[in-house]
Specification:
homodimer; alpha+beta; 15 strands
Chain lengths: 193, 193
């Protein structure tokens, strides 16, 4: 059900603050970690900021390859998301293999995504040594995006009762995740004065 | 029901990606805008990154005062959140007054919060001219935090069926917001190899 997402709509994929998975690869090694801290920073070109601890194996691979594969997991990957966020690939090796997470390689940079996620953004790292050092904050440009059409279509998430397994995960801490079962449309507010 | 939050837990307030309201004030003028794009970047000291368009009235006031008051709205502020995100304070004047949004001033910097939100973080801007210019991304340190104890207690959000009006808002685009009615605890995942 993977459908390309127009790059002008890429920011929508993480606009509502889901936890994401960061796939990375370089020199025959690859890794997958969870990141609760990411956000869009620009619509066009689509750019994001994401916090990747400078000491992690992921950061080492991202820096070496110059890119990252951001998968947005749905509820079906709840346990996997927490698992890959709890151990280091330096210690346990390839986390895709270790935890039985299916992967595919991105079409532009060839970086590894979680196939059973509900959306995907392949990103090229923008070299910003100061913010990477001071705040572990990496900036990146989205070069390809796709989503599962059952839950993201026409540039918009559609969280419904008939697709709850595909709803995004929002980490509250300690492995407890919220998921957005309900949505609501804001109404125009009349000025009170 | 406002209860101080230990600064070591401040990152938890936005860990799950809610849309926030940015209060600002300087020289007798004040403003309130919505921001879907923010994230923690560090636990201790608690620091956040937040995207504030450099052309906005909010950015002008934040730069002048050196601080911002981040309110985290719950569902009760759904329409207000969308309203303050849709017009500029340069054109409509004080948006607290215009839209009948109750306010209080933060205890450290005296900046204006939305009183009916469910959590609050007073932040001191960290001067980072390059990222503000290149990515509209501001870094700030949280100097005071509080939350409504009915929905955030002991350093953790507690979204339940009996407090749905206090659940946070997550902007999907176009005034459509998701809210995290359900939470789920991840279970340890056994290695598959």
């Amino acid at each position: 059900m993977r459908q390309d997402v127009h790059l002008g709509h890429a920011s929508r994929l993480i606009n509502h603050g889901p936890t994401v998975l960061v796939g990375s690869a370089h020199g025959g090694r690859r890794n997958l970690m969870a990141a609760a801290w990411s956000m869009p920073v620009e619509f066009t070109p689509p750019r994001i900021a994401i916090v990747i601890d400078k000491k992690t194996f992921t950061k080492e691979l991202v820096t070496a390859s110059g890119g990252l594969a951001v998968s947005i997991p749905g509820r079906a990957l709840l346990d996997a998301t927490y698992a890959v966020g709890s151990v280091s690939g330096r210690e346990v090796g390839d986390k895709f293999t270790r935890f039985g997470i299916e992967s595919f390689d991105g079409p532009v940079l060839g970086l590894p995504f979680a196939a059973d996620a509900v959306a995907w953004m392949e990103c090229r790292l923008i070299h910003e040594p100061h913010t990477e050092e001071a705040y572990d904050t990496c900036f990146a440009e989205v070069v390809w995006a796709a989503a599962d059409a059952r839950v993201f279509d026409h540039g918009r998430w559609s969280f419904r009762d008939d697709n709850t397994d595909l709803h995004t995960l929002h980490h509250l801490g300690g492995g407890n995740f919220a998921w957005p079962q309900r949505t609501e449309q804001a109404r125009p507010l009349k000025p009170s004065t």
